[in-house]
Hints:
This protein is of the alpha/beta class.
Amino acid sequence: MIYDVEYETMPREALEAIQLRRLKTTLERVCATVPFYRERMATAGIKPRDIQRLDDIRHIPFTTKQDLRDNYPFGMFAVPMDTVVRIHASSGTTGQPTVVGYTARDVNTWATLMARALVAGGATANDIIHNAYGYGLFTGGLGVHYGAEKLGASVIPVSGGNTRRQILIMRDFKPTVITATPSYVLHLAEVAEEMGVSFKDLSFKFGIFGAEPWSEKMRQEIERKLNITAVDIYGLSEVIGPGVAIECHEAKKGLHIFEDHFLPEIIDPASGEVLPPGETGELVFTSLTKEAFPVIRYRTRDITSLNPEPCVCGRTHVRMNRVSGRSDDMLIIRGVNVFPSQIESILMETSEVAPHYQLVVDREENLDTLTVRVEVGEGLFSDEVRQLQALERQISKNIKETLGVSAKVKLVEPHTIQRSEGKAVRVIDNRKI
Ligand code: DLL
């Protein structure tokens, strides 16, 4: 099923014509209403009317998270406050939060895109959606909520937390779809087990997981543990929230970007040069329809590549590959670049460990050290110390051979790594302190 057949299956040529038209309108608007964009474009010596082809966008300067911070809180809004009906913010671990705004039309666009996304993931109006993304300033909860209502599904606004109560709701309300971060859904599964409830006996058909990087192996683990199909959803507050891109359940191979609303580019993060399809780099977005908070060539810091191949589902929108990590989450351990998700894939290949892990980076005598703390599966910990040590050595060897980085692996008891109710904290980097 496709929610918006006309736009989602539009031939490329027609789609690109719409993108160009919307891009020109967006540029005219931001230059008229947002001093930041007007000055940036003027400094670069470029006017909206100079953009005659989509490719011409390369001449426009990038926008970064720092630019948004410099204009905190509402300096990047392109409409007067009396037309803003919603404000969200992403917490951000350092510095000011990033604040984003929506007009009534933006909220409606977002709901439509989320309805599209839910349908691409496999949902219909008959589904009951257990929405365990956090409600609040985070865009996950309300984003999915409005999309579910737009679709006509029944949504349970359970949010994150109160985990034991969630299990009772799942058992009694019989939801058919679950939406959560991948790390939280694993925690839900764990608590369900403690309560003697098996996900296999619940009514879930599939789940839509995102808001944090997760590996293909993690998908397999979730699908096996919960006995469901798991699809990947991507988005970020600055661009709209969840519903920027999603995997179709037919292929589960890359996430279709809703290109009639967002124009993607992949750039070399160091030089800023635009890379051809298939090459891996930093994802950059320009919004094409947003009113309150348009973004022009916004650098997401997310690392991925674009796949323009046709898809079995019939959608013509380009697919982005699974995000391997954020450029600012990339660890450089003695010169070797490592993403937490790469370590995750290796851990998931080892059946004796559980999918709960944390990476601790330190500096000892001017040398970086990486410690991988991972929980052993239930039942193994009481076993012989020698067996545990052998397992630690084996995982360490796998990491070295696959990624070329030396890591100390430390097996820890079940339930010792902090569980997340939203985005998991995978890395503790003591070098920054
Ligand atoms: O995480 C929006 C969202 C909510 C997406 C629910 C999906 C589901 P922010 O809090 O602004 O917005 O965080 C955005 O999270 O730049 C990525 O680094 C990361 N991220 C989001 N989805 C994925 C994903 C929401 N599927 C930041 N895979 C983004 C990997 C993801 N990383």
